[in-house]
Design a protein that fits this description.
Rossmann fold; four-stranded parallel β-sheet; 8 strands; 12% strand
Length: 371
Amino acid sequence: MKELQYFEEVASDLENREIRAWREAGKRVVGTVCSSMPEEVLHAGGLLPLRLRAPGLLDTASADAHLHRINCSYTRSVLEVLLRGDLSFLDGLITTNTCDHMLRLAGELEAKAGFPVHYFSMYHTLGESSRKWFILEMEKLIRYIEGSFSTKVSEEDLRQSVSVYNRTRRLMAELAELRKQDPPCVSGAEYLAIAVVGMSIPRELFNDKLEALLPPLRERSSGKSGQPRVMLVGGACDMPEFVGFIEGKGVSVVADGLCFGTRHYWGEVDENAAEFLPAIADHYFDRMACPAIIDGFDHSYGILKQMIDDWRVDGVISARLKFCDHWGGQRKMLAEELRKESVPVLDLEREYNTAGSGQIATRVQAFLEML
């Protein structure tokens, strides 16, 4: 489908053509490493937030000299592209401590980046004290933006950014609705490519591109009717090729709980709020929680279970990164709860930059036979 070619092409390159055009216009790009980073705040400062990925990366030889192999392959891949000079187009970078692996990465990025780096201390519970902490961290982020880029972030700037990002969330919700059909109007691989592009180009441009894409999508179908309907969950899964590999075994990936996918775009910020930092905090706390959130499972499971019902999911594939302790625990708790609902779960341990393998193919095929 020619309308999808733009998204597939842009998703395949970190420094894509829209970023190059943005920088040629004298505007700044700031990299982020976590879905819980409040992008609206960066956008309000006139910056382009770019979720860091490593498309096409085949090895992490340089990064392995600085990060132990027991660090997840996403963190090693991000460090690898930095060491290779592939992040030289960035004007700044936001690091965080989502997990121990991210904290270790943060230290390496701060030491080696060569451009302004800000450390955003992430919350790890869903209580009121964590919400206040998140607001304080957003205030620190604003000071970083204003000090590093000689700009101001006003309440009106935040209001405008919230409006832009809410438009994205509404459009992505419409796109997700198209996955409910049988066969879906958009495949899981196509959905992930679109979602990744939303984190990789100016948000206003993405909104316009997605709005133009939705009408032709509504008139087509992807895959075959009657195929098993699967939800994909896991951490740092930004490769449409991996989802396409799974779908190539005769399954429709119709829903996800990925930090590069539906979780990133879930819900909206209150546009009528009196103050926008608290409203932004409320939104991030209302989404599916990262497994690194100590008390977040029950909240996340409620959302995932509703999605399983609404999207008529037959089974769940947990595609977790090797050495990711948080997703390992999340998978176990999720499997225990879904077993009570007679929803089977397949546990796939994967590397970040592996689109597929014979072992994964065998396990997926066996899972589909069970479904």
